[in-house]
Amino acid sequence: MAFEGLSDKLSNAFKKLKNKGKLTEADVREAMREVRLALLEADVNYKVAKDFTNKVTERAIGQDVMESLTPAQMVIKIVNEELTALMGGENARLEFASKPPTVIMMCGLQGSGKTTHSAKLAKMLKEKQNRRPLLVACDIYRPAAIDQLKVVGAKAGVPVFEMGTANPVKIAREAVKHARDYGNDIVILDTAGRLHIDEKLMNELKDVKAEVNPDEILLVIDAMTGQDAVNVAKSFNELLEVTGVILTKLDGDTRGGAALSVREVTGKPIKFAGTGEKLDDLEVFHPDRMASRILGMGDVLTLIEDAQSKLDQKQAEQMAEKIMANRFDFNDLLGQFDQIKKMGPLKGILSKIPGVGKQLDGVDINDRQIDWLQAIILSMTPEERENPSLMNPSRKRRIAAGSGRTVEEVNRLIKQLEQMQKMIKQMNRGGKKGKRKKKMMLPGLGGPMDMGGMGGMGGNGMSF
Q1: pTM of the model
Q2: Which CATH number describes the domain made up of 4-86?
Q3: What does the DSSP assignment read for 30-66?
Q4: pLDDT for the residue numbered 275
């Protein structure tokens, strides 16, 4: 995940401060030197890193911090506030036209994920804001670019407007007319990607901008390109005056410095972050939440929003009813695994829980383990799933062979279910307390799956 290395280094720097009862100015300056090195290693722009640590140092050596009962915590609080400010302070929203359609022009280098993120944005606007977006194929140069947009558009359930290899300026103009005629209130122009800052193609972008006067010009940047992403953002902004940035591949093994530099260098906010390959993997960029993640404080708000948007509420309520009635079996566990997979990579989910992120350092969490557990359950007969007490050695061997797993793994999963059932009984013994607990559950992660279903984490295998 992005920022892992940065989070670890910041944590080590703050740990040294926590071990000191009272801080001196030298302690703060030494810690900030480590923070600056950590930022530079994360590919943060040098000037941005220097200015950031100077601001934190100036605030941290103030009288209020030095004389505080918990000076180390005060320093961390200041770092959190300055990180949030560095990334824009508050989340920046899309600007919608007073008279539809709103025209959004997507631009960026080739390979940055522009076409996919055009579809992701269209899907988000359609499903979360009840908009009627229209995707427009303005990339006439890249082979199969139009076909790719049609494919992702169909997956997103959004219509695609195309005119083959006609002039992109004409395509954009006709698309806006089409949107007015057919009631589309958002027009998303997927323009051609550039291999580099090409003068001819950049002039084409300027011509498209002059023709349709877009309400938003969103620059799509690959976070894995690091410091180069900031240079790209600066160049595009000087030529087009972009209104915002979509940062992609923040789920990858990246240093993440672009997220901390783009806003400061260009003055343009990051509006969205791509966090995976699926069309649902697009988040509104919240600077305060990202700062919390970087500092290992979790991100509960995003976790709850993910649960609400991606999980089946009706299924969650049915699950809660079964839990309250002490009727939790392997069929229910299979459903819980399906719900969890909808929310994305498991390590990403757990990292948003305060206090859990740090426990994941060095733990290899393979998302395929859920597939393996599902394979074991699917190798059981309907009777065995409903009544695990039927399991005898021969049945276990048959299930292990059918799922391609070992008998030990089958035994471990059966034991895990038994532990869950015990937890459910204990939870329900409280009567009214149990009902109160039910209301506190996250949909799809509620009940025993809160951490019981993820118990046994540890070592390199992270067995459930």
Answers
A1: 0.65
A2: 1.20.120.140
A3: HHHHHHHHHHHHTT--HHHHHHHHHHHHHHHTSHHHH
A4: 82
